[in-house]
Every structure is written in structure tokens, then in C-alpha cells.
Specification:
Layout: H1 3-7, H2 14-29, H3 37-40, H4 49-70, H5 72-88, H6 96-116, H7 118-129, H8 133-143, H9 151-161, H10 170-183, H11 197-206, H12 208-211, H13 237-241
Amino acid sequence: MNYFAHALDFLESPYLVAGVATPDWLGVVDRRVRVRSKHALPLIDDADDRVADVARGIVRHHQDDAWFHESAAFHELSWQLTVVTRDALPGDEGFRPSFLGHILVEILLDAELISQKPQRLEKYYQALELLDGDVVEQAVNRMAPRPCQRLAALIPHFCREGFLWDYADDGKLWFRLNQVMRRVTLPPLPESFCRLLPEARRLVSSRAAELLCPGPGASSLGETVEAETIPHRNNLAGDARQ
């Protein structure tokens, strides 16, 4: 999942929104810092509700990613988009097509959810603007095996960039994808890559409801903490069908 799908259950709870974003934020600021569920679980009942929410969000992020990446819809779509990408990039038999197949499913699912109710994206950024970045960074450093010193500075930058709004436009999405390519040291995408995005959007949109439904064996954070405190992803399936 990408930022927006991870956060949709929690738009009224800024530090939960921060928690579900934290594993991805760490991938931007310091890829050597990893916070797993086992690191966060000891703090889900912390005396500071903000710290507890960050911890709960991190656990939820990993649990949602686990069932999402094992779903039939994700596997089938990521393979379809890998093939489409490989066809659009002749001679590229390396890692780039499969990487793009993976992230396009996640990014275009966000785009679909945003298109349904754009006001929810406004609430997402409003929630992030309420954060004390130092509190988030200090909470993460209580969990992480090694410290991170740039997370607090990233959060306001993430809000100012507002790049999730760009997912609706093929040209802007191409620009954002090339930012990712640079970060992971893969070759940039030609502008002609934009031509495949409308069909990729259609494919992901047609299976959005499936992508948001965990399988029968999926665990929820409610099995670790109180279920009524952290609603499960099943609540979102109806939105994808609207």
C-alpha cells in the first residue's frame, strides 16, 4: 500500500496517520533505519497517547502490507503492469519493470481513492500539519534499532510537497515516478511512459475493491490491540465500489 490507502481509517487521528506513514518516511530519510512491528509493539500502550498512536500505526502498516502484497489482485495486477512496462521500455529486462509494476499498483490505488472523495486528501494533509515532528521522531527513536535524525524535518517538507495530489495527472505522475527512480538509482523513464498510464489506471480502478479486502487469513491490529480502537481495512471496501 501507499501513503493514502494506509491512512484512510485514521484521518481523525494525526499520530496514527504518522505511524502508518513512518516505515515509508524512513525509506526516504534513511533506508538503514527500519522499524518493524516487534519494535513498535512494546509502545502501543505508552502513557503518551501520541507515542502509542505512532506505534500502533507502525504495526498496522506492516500488517496491512502483509495481506495486501499476498492478495491475488495485487499479484495479478503487478504482473500485468510489469509486462506493460517492459513492453513500453524495449530492451529493459532488468529490475525496473517489476519495480514499476509493484509501485504502480499502490500509487494508482491511491489515485483511485483520492478521485472518489478528494476532500479526504485535504483531511489527510490537515492531519499531518497538526503533528509535532519532534514527538514523532523521538517516538520512532525509542523503537528503532538505530536512531534517525531527519524524520522531524521531513514531515513539513512532505506536507509542502503535497505530491499525492499529482497522482491524478499523468504528466505530473511521470515526474514523481522519475523522482523515485533517482532515489532508488534506476534509469529515468522517458516521457512516452505517460502513454501507458491511462490503461494502468483503468486496470487498477477495476480491481480497487479487491485490493482493499484482506483475505480470510489476514490478521488485523485488532488482534494485537482492541479491535474497536483500530478499525480494519474491510471498512474501506465499500468506498472503492462507490
